[in-house]
Recover the amino acids of this structure.
C-alpha cells in the first residue's frame, strides 16, 4: 500500500506480504475495512508519539517562529514518510461507507489537532492575533490542508522543501505579522492579515 492504492489491497496480498495465513488475518480482522481501521490506529499512535517528543523544557524555550518551523517540518516528514499509506487512507475514507472507519479517521484528526493546539498554546503569549485560540485553529486547518496537498497527494518521491518552507512562512506571517511588516517595509512588501 505504500506505493499502491487502497483498492490494490486484498486479503491475498496481505497474506503474501505478511507471511501469515488467511485464517490468521481473518482471526484479527473481519474484513478489509478492519485492516484500514488498524492502520489509522497505528498511525495515530505513531503521530502522537512524535508530538510527545516535542513537549518539555526545550519546547517551551523555543520562540514561536522556531516552534512553527519545527511543527511544520516534523509533520511534513511524517506525512512524506507515510504518504502512500496516508494517500490510500484518504481515498478509502472518501469511498468507504464503514462508520467505524469514519469514526477512526475523525478520532485521528481530533487527536492530532488537539496535540498541535497544545504545543502551540505554549507560545500563545507570542501570538499577535487578537484571538490566539482561533488563530491556532486556522493555522492547524491550513497546515493539514497544505501538507495533504503538497506532500501526501504529490507524485514526487522527494519532499518539496520549498513548499514546506512556504507553509512555514505563511503560518508565521499569520501569527506574527509585525515581524514581516517591518522586514518587508523597505521592499514594498506588506504583511498579510
Amino acid at each position: 500500500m505504500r506505493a499502491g492504492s487502497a483498492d490494490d489491497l486484498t486479503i491475498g496480498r496481505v497474506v503474501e506480504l505478511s507471511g501469515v495465513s488467511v485464517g490468521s488475518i481473518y482471526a484479527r480482522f473481519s474484513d478489509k475495512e478492519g485492516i484500514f481501521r488498524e492502520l489509522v490506529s497505528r498511525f495515530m499512535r505513531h503521530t502522537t508519539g512524535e508530538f510527545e517528543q516535542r513537549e518539555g523544557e526545550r519546547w517551551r524555550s523555543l520562540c514561536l517562529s522556531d516552534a512553527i518551523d519545527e511543527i511544520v517540518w516534523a509533520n511534513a516528514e511524517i506525512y512524506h514518510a507515510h504518504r502512500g499509506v496516508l494517500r490510500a487512507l484518504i481515498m478509502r475514507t472518501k469511498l468507504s461507507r464503514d462508520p467505524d472507519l469514519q469514526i477512526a479517521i475523525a478520532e485521528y484528526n481530533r487527536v492530532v489537532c488537539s496535540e498541535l493546539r497544545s504545543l502551540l498554546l505554549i507560545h500563545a503569549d507570542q501570538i499577535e492575533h487578537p484571538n490566539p485560540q482561533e488563530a491556532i485553529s486556522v493555522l492547524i486547518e491550513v497546515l493539514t490542508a497544505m501538507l495533504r496537498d503538497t506532500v501526501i497527494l504529490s507524485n514526487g518521491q522527494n519532499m518539496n522543501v520549498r513548499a514546506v518552507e512556504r507553509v512555514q512562512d505563511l503560518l508565521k506571517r499569520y501569527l506574527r505579522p509585525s515581524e514581516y511588516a517591518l522586514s518587508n517595509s523597505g521592499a514594498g512588501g506588506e504583511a498579510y492579515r
Residues 185-193 have pLDDT under 50 and may be disordered. DSSP finds ten helices and no strands in the chain. Residues 31-187 form a domain with the Tetracycline Repressor; domain 2 fold (CATH 1.10.357.10). The two ends are 41 Å apart (CA to CA).
